[in-house]
Specification:
This protein is mostly beta strands and about 120 residues long. It has strands at about 1-5, 10, 15-25, 30-40, 45-50, 55-60, 65-70, 75-80, 90-100, 105, 110-115. Helices cover about 0% and strands about 50% of the residues. A hairpin with a 6-residue loop joins strand 5 and strand 6.
Length: about 120
């Protein structure tokens, strides 16, 4: 059982990225998916959440309007769409799948926003 993030990279300020979270070895639709990020020298912080069916989503207040979360249970995938990126969005982004009993974290994907 694992989750794997991908899609990070270097992007200019104002640009966009879409991060992917792929679940394997699990019934993905049973898991709530949360995204977190951790910038250098800072604590890990919550970014967004999406419920099992995808009907419930929420984004950290400071990121509302720029970040959106979605999922496709048929393909065991979740995504974090990030728009209007700023240098302060630079961080390692993590996906966590939670069943209420067990949490599975991915290894993280680096996002760097710089000109």
């Amino acid at each position: 059982v694992q989750v794997v993030e991908s899609g990070g990279g270097l992007v200019q300020p104002g640009g966009s990225l879409r991060l992917s979270c792929a679940g394997s070895g699990m019934t993905f639709s049973r898991y709530i998916v949360r995204w977190y990020r951790q910038a250098p020298g800072k604590e890990r912080e919550f970014v967004a959440i999406i419920g099992q069916s995808g009907s419930y989503t929420s984004t950290a207040d400071s990121l509302k309007g720029r970040y959106t979360v979605s999922r496709d249970n048929a393909n065991n995938m979740a995504w974090l769409q990030m728009n209007s990126l700023k240098p302060e969005d630079t961080a390692v982004y993590y996906c966590k799948a939670s069943s209420g009993v067990t949490d599975y974290w991915g290894q993280g994907t680096q996002v760097t926003v710089s000109s």
